[in-house]
Design brief:
Layout lengths: L1 E9 L6 E7 L5 E7 L3 H5 L13 E8 L6 E8 L5 E3 L13
Parallel strand pairs: 3-5
Antiparallel strand pairs: 1-2, 1-4, 2-3, 4-5, 5-6
Length: 99
């Protein structure tokens, strides 16, 4: 999980998008983009179009792309007040024994 600063949040179909800046191990700022479900899908998980604003300091967990740098699918976001926004209602973390 990385601490990050929101630069832009797009509440749009077909997927919501979060752009954010995060520091690497050397303190250099890198620009990231994270994709979540559609507005209708994430709304049922507690998100809304005003959940994130530029300048918000958040903690981000995502699954990085295999093909692009600093891009990925959002897993969850923790807001400054401790609220957690997830991209999926799953809680098993993909454990194979669930199948």
């Amino acid at each position: 999980m990385k601490q990050a600063t929101v630069t832009r949040f797009l509440w749009a179909n077909p997927h919501t998008m979060l752009m954010f800046d995060a520091k690497d191990d050397k303190g250099n700022i890198s620009h990231w983009a994270g994709e979540a479900g559609s507005p209708a899908a994430v709304r049922s998980l507690g998100w809304n179009k005003n959940s994130l604003h530029p300048g918000d300091v958040i903690t981000v967990q995502l699954y990085p792309s295999k093909f692009e740098r600093r891009v990925g699918r959002l897993d969850k976001i923790v807001l400054a007040d401790g609220t957690t926004l997830k991209d999926s209602p799953r809680s098993d973390l993909g454990v194979l024994s669930r199948y």
